[in-house]
Specification:
Blueprint lengths: L6 E3 L2 E3 L1 H8 L4 H9 L5 H6 L9 E3 L2 E3 L1 H8 L4 H9 L4 H6 L10 E3 L6 E3 L13
Antiparallel strand pairs: 1-2, 3-4, 5-6
């Protein structure tokens, strides 16, 4: 039988999971991981919120998250821009290229980088032009 260790944080007594649930900032699993794997103090583990990682991008001299850049520069959705980035588009091109539909989606293989690119773009993601 294992005894659960009891802690006191800011006047509240309980196990690590109980304290995490009481303060409601992080889950019990996160608090346990912070203490056991990362050596955090009990108080910090149950009271400090998780930091949210937000990737920043720079386009046209402006830096910000993708949502902000899409609002400033794009006529297409953030989902479309993310998909374009996933397929290797340069950020600026992904932001300013209008949505392609129908016959605009006919693809051609670039001779230089061997990527499939919509003919309507007239230029590959690598920068080479189509003839």
């Amino acid at each position: 039988m294992t005894l659960k260790q009891i802690y006191i944080v800011k006047g509240k007594t309980g196990t690590l999971r109980d304290l995490a649930n009481y303060f409601g900032v992080v889950s019990g699993d996160v608090a346990c991981c912070r203490v056991r794997k990362h050596g955090w103090s009990i108080e910090d583990a149950v009271t400090k919120p998780q930091e949210r990682f937000v990737k920043t991008y720079t386009a046209f001299g402006k830096t910000g998250n993708l949502k902000l850049l899409v609002e400033q520069f794009s006529s297409v959705s953030e989902v479309t821009v993310r998909a374009r980035l996933k397929y290797g588009w340069y950020l600026e091109k992904a932001l300013i290229t209008p949505k392609l539909e129908g016959k605009d989606l006919t693809m051609k293989v670039c001779n230089k980088c061997k990527q499939s690119v919509p003919i309507a773009l007239k230029i590959c993601y690598c920068g080479s032009e189509f003839k």
